[in-house]
Structures are given as structure tokens and as C-alpha cells.
Amino acid sequence: MSLADIVQGGWEAVGAGDFDALVADYVDEMRFIMPGQADLLEGRQAFRSALDGLGEILPPGFEITDLRQIEGEAEVVSIVEWKSDKLAASQLSVLFKFEGDKIYEERWFVDTEQWKSAF
């Protein structure tokens, strides 16, 4: 299985609400970084707990409209096209860094001003 396939499976798990399947692809000491957010999540358990409140941190009506994976050496970038109740269309990217076949860092790149305006 390619690293891009692992990331794609993670996005599918999020869409299905299967957060336990999602976090199985992360190392215990993983880090989640989202620009514009005050919190840096460290550790798979903290990440899993935060996923229970996912609806509260996404803009109302958030929907992924297209998703592409670009695989490099020990990393994958997801290009995410999305929309919400207040935005007809936008993009963001997410960098996944791997140790073997497990993710040790997930970093979101978002236009933070636009993201704030979507709420």
C-alpha cells in the first residue's frame, strides 16, 4: 500500500466517522498542527479525543468537494477543495510526514483569514 493510499484511507475514515480507524495510521507520539489555532495536539490519544469535537472546529456546512494526493519521499500532501455555508469554494493543503507506514506529523496549511470568515 502506498503512503498516498494510507492518507486517502484516512480521509475516507473521517468521512465515515470512523476515527478509531483513522488514528490507527498514526504513531503514538504524533503531532497535529493547524495554523491559526492556539492548540498544538501532541499524542495520538489527544488527537483522537479532539476528533470527537470535529464538527465544532470546522466551518458550518463544511464539505470536501475534491481531494488529491501528491506523494513524495516519506510524505504526502493532500490538496483539499472545499466549500461551506459562507464560502462557495476554497482550497487548503495538508502535509503528512511518515515514519515507515505511520504518520508522525499532520500539518494544515490554510488561508487563516478566509477560514475565520467561513464561521
UniProtKB/TrEMBL annotation:
<dbReference type="InterPro" id="IPR037401">
    <property type="entry name" value="SnoaL-like"/>
</dbReference>
<feature type="domain" description="SnoaL-like">
    <location>
        <begin position="11"/>
        <end position="105"/>
    </location>
</feature>
<dbReference type="Pfam" id="PF12680">
    <property type="entry name" value="SnoaL_2"/>
</dbReference>
<dbReference type="InterPro" id="IPR032710">
    <property type="entry name" value="NTF2-like_dom_sf"/>
</dbReference>
<protein>
    <submittedName>
        <fullName>Nuclear transport factor 2 family protein</fullName>
    </submittedName>
</protein>
